[in-house]
Design brief:
With 44 residues, the chain is an all-alpha fold. 32% of the residues lie in helices and 0% in strands. The chain has one domain (12-43).
């Protein structure tokens, strides 16, 4: 995330598409169970 200032608000979709085109991001199919860990407040 070089070039993004701390606290800067931006859309993640265009950023992720750029990373995909650059071969810097990928994905996998996960068929296992998912667990909702909630928010920071819910974890405390």
């Amino acid at each position: 995330f070089d070039g993004i200032a701390p606290g800067e608000v931006m859309r993640i979709g265009p950023l992720m598409r750029t990373f995909i085109e650059q071969g810097r991001i990928g994905g996998e199919i996960y068929t296992g169970p998912w667990v909702n860990v909630g928010t920071v407040e819910q974890l405390e």
